[in-house]
Amino acid sequence: MRVHQVSVLWLAITACLTAACASSPSAKPAQAPGPLAPVAFMEGYWKGEADGGTWEEFWTSTEGNVMTGTAKQVVNGRAVFFEFSRIAAAKDGKVTLFVSPFGRHPPTAFTLADTRDDSARFECPQNDYPSVITYTVTGSGTSRVLKATLTGTEKGVAKSETLELRPLK
Fold this sequence. Notes:
By secondary structure, the chain is mainly beta. It folds into two domains: about 1-30; about 35-165, Beta Barrel (Lipocalin), CATH 2.40.128.20. The protein has one helix and ten strands. It has one helix at about 1-25; strands at about 45-50, 55-60, 65-75, 80-90, 95-100, 110-115, 120-125, 130-140, 145-155, 155-165. The chain starts with a helix and ends with a strand.
């Protein structure tokens, strides 16, 4: 009987340790460096206020060499804008942001033109507005801010706007 109790106790301890390790952040597999490593800082669920409403943006991890993103703006309880996005490396190795406002197809392609620590600039010169989309993260921990800056020309007039979003989780 004593051997049975020790075996059951050992199984319970092993199960608890396995569960603890599986849920531990350090147990996550390390992301291999790849073509999307310079934009990995965008990963997460971000939220902020802009243009009289709430803006949400979500970016997945770089795992599989593709990031997918969604965004929406809600004003007075109604979604007034939404967008589906994807960042992937093309066969030629160029990292590209594909943007589909309101689910429009085909998406507009912005090529990664420059990266620095926690900053990435995507360009699409043939698009009027925006022709440049820049993502930058500042701060650390819960004080992190993702800034998405859109620049270009609209009806011949230079235009720029920046969204400031904070992490939700």
